[in-house]
TrEMBL record:
Residues 173-288 form the LD-carboxypeptidase C-terminal domain. Keywords: Carboxypeptidase, Hydrolase, Protease, Serine protease. It holds the Pfam family Peptidase_S66. This is LD-carboxypeptidase.
């Protein structure tokens, strides 16, 4: 995988939304954070634009992303909001210039489509990290600090407590992944994730238990777990029971889907749609060590 150049003080960075509309006050907070990092934020035309739930029309969102990708002065692009929308425009975006002059693309949730597309089509790393919209729930210093470290190329290593359902083992491989439902929806498209020989990160929000099971079973049938080196599970937020009850917790659903494989599994990694959202460098080499004492995830640049 290709790692874009890490940021340095004074760099210009783009701020846009290729998905849903973001309230201006959270954009203003993001701009303040970026300025504290000695970066120069450049706001895209989608900031302040709105059409229904989207940050402007498909054409506006596509063109905004295209201009940020093609602008040599922009060294990173921050998505401000997830939700839905990237799949509507991704096939119209021309990545030819980005291919030879890559830059960091930052976000999560719906940005999973962008991560998967860039890694699969262009073998280029991206960052799964917190966004402006997350500021609605408050400023989580550890989330933003981990994102700063990832962007500036500082050592990034995480230690988390052992989870009773973890499956012990070690793996070293490229880390990819994102939101389960979006990875599932990307199957058969240009943005489909190639999980062979990788460590896969998964998280999800706001789904029924049976629906989570259906996404995971679909990914299994597509061979997405067959050649994995390891599985890292983040926040499983607001995964609700149905009537009649499905009968399994979200963690049990995941373990059942991967029971035929022997790679290590870590639950409870602090990333995704709930509170703390630690940055992950998708496309970078990572060392995963899951033991009875806890889990260590270390990125190797």
């Amino acid at each position: 995988m290709i790692l874009p150049p890490f940021l340095k003080a004074g760099d210009k960075v783009g701020v846009l939304s290729t998905s849903n509309y973001t309230e201006q006050k959270y954009i203003d907070e993001l701009v303040s954070i970026l300025k504290e990092w000695k970066l120069q934020p450049v706001l895209g035309k989608t900031i302040g634009a709105r059409r229904g739930s989207f940050a402007g029309s498909d054409a506006l969102r596509c063109n905004d992303l295209q201009q940020m990708l093609d602008n040599d002065q922009i060294r990173a692009v921050f998505e401000t909001m997830g939700g839905y929308g990237i799949i509507r425009v991704i096939e119209q975006v021309n990545f030819n210039k980005f291919k030879y002059k890559p830059k960091w693309l930052v976000g999560y949730s719906d940005t999973t489509f962008l991560h998967s597309h860039v890694q699969g089509m262009l073998s280029t790393a991206t960052i799964h990290g917190t966004m402006a919209a997350d500021l609605e729930a408050g400023y989580h210093a550890s989330s933003w600090e981990s994102l700063r470290k990832a962007l500036f190329g500082e050592p990034l290593e995480y230690h988390i407590k052992a989870h009773p359902l973890n499956r012990e083992g070690k793996a070293e491989a490229i880390l990819i992944g994102g939101t389960v439902s979006i990875l599932c929806n990307a199957k058969g498209t240009m943005s489909e994730a190639n999980t062979n020989g990788k460590i896969l990160f998964l998280e999800e929000v706001g789904e029924k238990q049976f629906r989570l099971d259906s996404y995971l079973v679909s990914l299994k049938q597509a061979g997405k777990f067959k050649y994995l080196k390891g599985l890292l599970v983040g926040h499983l937020t607001d995964i609700t029971e149905d009537d009649p009850p499905f009968g399994k917790t979200p963690e049990e659903i995941i373990l059942d889907v991967v029971k035929d494989y022997d790679f290590p599994v870590c639950f409870g990694f602090p990333a995704g749609h709930s509170g703390v959202n630690k940055a992950l460098v998708f496309g970078a080499n990572a060392q995963l060590d899951v033991s009875g004492k806890g889990t260590t995830l270390r990125f190797i640049y």
